[in-house]
Design the sequence.
């Protein structure tokens, strides 16, 4: 038994749109895709047992005139274009922020972020002092370790 040709229709629309883009769809297909895209279609039944598809087929479903559909589609295209532009601006802004972080870090290392106190010792002298203190601490540890071994021998 062959399935109804409509089975998987929206999936095929999505597939065609993802592969080829908007040009592959007629306006009414694009409208259908945009209006139903966020709604996964898992169940086609109702919660009322006697309320069937055949019964529903007897009721008219209002459809907007083609000009109104085109207008809606145009607004959707404009919204998507605006969204795309916004995303591009966000990406550009994030790149600028990352570059600014690097610039701020570089200025901090050069001492350019805050006014410098002329009474502060230069960084080169500070580094020398730190190295000397480190060397004296290390030599003190070595001497202490040697003294401890010598005391154990006695």
Sequence:
């Amino acid at each position: 038994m062959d399935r109804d040709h409509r089975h998987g229709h929206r999936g095929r629309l999505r597939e065609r749109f993802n592969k080829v883009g908007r040009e592959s769809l007629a306006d009414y297909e694009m409208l259908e895709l945009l209006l139903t895209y966020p709604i996964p279609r898992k169940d086609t039944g109702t919660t009322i047992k006697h309320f069937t598809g055949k019964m529903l087929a007897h009721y008219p479903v209002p459809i907007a005139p083609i000009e109104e559909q085109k207008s809606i589609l145009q607004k959707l295209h404009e919204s998507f274009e605006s969204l795309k532009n916004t995303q591009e601006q966000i990406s550009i802004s994030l790149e600028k922020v990352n570059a600014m972080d690097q610039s701020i870090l570089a200025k901090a290392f050069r001492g350019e972020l805050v006014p410098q106190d002329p009474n502060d010792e230069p960084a080169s002298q500070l580094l020398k002092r730190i190295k000397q203190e480190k060397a004296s601490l290390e030599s003190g540890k070595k001497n202490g370790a040697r003294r401890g071994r010598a005391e154990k021998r006695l």
About this structure: The radius of gyration is 37 Å. The first helix runs from residue 9 to 20. The chain has a mean pLDDT of 80. Residues 20 and 99 are 36 Å apart (CA to CA).
